[in-house]
DNA sequence: ATCTCAAATGCAAGCGCTTACATCGACGGA
DNA sequence: TCCGTCGATGTAAGCGCTTGCATTTGAGAT
């Protein structure tokens, strides 16, 4: 009790157990290299002193942190939560720790966070979407930190990715909307600048229109942030026009729910007066009233696969294999045949 | 290009700029100690080499990381998202980086994550709720890492906290329910073991019943995980009894939304046949149909205040001052007077 | 008892950075 | 002109750990 009660170091443990620091280190990291008797003594010392290794020192010496970093655009809604949870569970199974930070959909912040995570010794990174400055990818390469892109799969992308084909998924949904009888279709999209997921989703809708002989240029598209309020505002905007759309395809469920809320508030009947669709199939989609027709994304599966692949890349087991996850359109009440007189 | 293209170090920059490592370090950390001419030269070298400081080394040498860690029970829903976002923004303003990890409501995992964050050199920690092993608090003290408890304020708690009084908030809500005419009240609570927030919320309801001459022991309480499905199951369970409650108070909005979903599925009218209330006032509460009567928690304010206080503690400016945030009952359609014949 | 050879352990050199202290140099005052 | 000062810069000692290599130990073989 005479000593200052500050965090004990490897050295303290070594002294306490009467061995060298090397032995203590081996006890902690490669126990089977140490004979049982010694090991027990060391572990007891560890216990008695309440020792915890200093990570910074360990990372520095070992050049390995068993930490994976993830930068997601936002924690403000459930879009990324579920997939990330699965990602984390899978990492834990392999002894990795996950560190998350959010970029608020801002490229600058994302860049900063990536640097922070790399500087902190992350062995690998999970990134959302493909689009970002080349500089960042070069930086990662230079630091030899493998990165895995998720939530998006682009057939011709450089980066390894585990995600889904946003364009195809949206195409399928739009086809459904068209098949249901809609011709005057509008869209509420997320901000497309720097966001390939948002871009390709819009593209998917356009392609579907084109494929069905509808002029994609005539489609009204409002771009806005992925927030409930934004969805509501966009909805109001779209419905204030002379020729109202009969269906509004939203870039994700959050926007769609915002639209639904505004519809209810202003007494617009969904789906009688206008159909609304979402994307992601988060819990909100089923809870919403009317329940949302949307694109179901198997987030958990994606998270799990992403973790497995990223770990393989970190271990050098894999050079990076992309996976395209299948999505599926889910029919619920928010989409219906347009009124004939519309 | 002859050299191996691996991450440049301080030393490389120093050589490149023709100065010592000390000077480079000073340029980066305390620029005004370096004369402009030198500084420019150094910064240019930094730029040319694409240098990023190695965090582990920096933390080790400086014993300061400008990193704050937060361990939240789950990222799976919006309960913590909003407050955390505000927390992060405020930290950024002061030059701190936030690292988040989730414990999935499991004490063991939380403990592990706390150690991971501390070992990683976190200057301070944000913890949710007061209740955890003493050992953890001792560990933090030993490592001299200040911790701030949020989402809960307990008048007589040891730990510094910035949160709200869960008992009082729930008391007020329950009083409202009683005032609305309900007598047969049931509750769907989160798991109370190791969770003081869940515990005190139940206590709040019990106290309100008591205060109104209703025997709290007669109240049916179902404990379950904080998931939509769990809420739904609990609702079914409660409504399958002979004497159905006229009001169900839920431990949070997620459980309440689950109850609402089950009600809709089974054709139970809310609030006509049974009233339902939530807690937190996340977006879901307003979206739900019928919209939820709930307790509004000013999450952003809490996050901001928590960040400010924690930074003060880290800087040694404050020894830790607790703040109790005011909550407010929000009336929406899910709560109404019980049918007279009930 | 002696020798052999793994297995177990110790030694010590870093990992990349910060910082106390030493040194250098320029400028102003005597 | 010389010295004192003070600001700018360099020197080098760690920070706590891992790990290649050297050394010691002990069990089995002779």
UniProtKB/TrEMBL annotation, chains A, B:
GO terms for molecular function: DNA-binding transcription factor activity; transcription cis-regulatory region binding. SUPFAM superfamilies: lambda repressor-like DNA-binding domains, Periplasmic binding protein-like I. InterPro entries: HTH_LacI, LacI/GalR-like_sensor, Lambda_DNA-bd_dom_sf, Peripla_BP_I. PROSITE patterns: HTH_LACI_2. This is Substrate-binding domain-containing protein. The keyword DNA-binding applies. CDD domains: HTH_LacI, PBP1_LacI-like. Keywords: DNA-binding, Transcription, Transcription regulation. Pfam families: LacI, Peripla_BP_3. The keyword Transcription applies. Residues 8-62 form the HTH lacI-type domain.
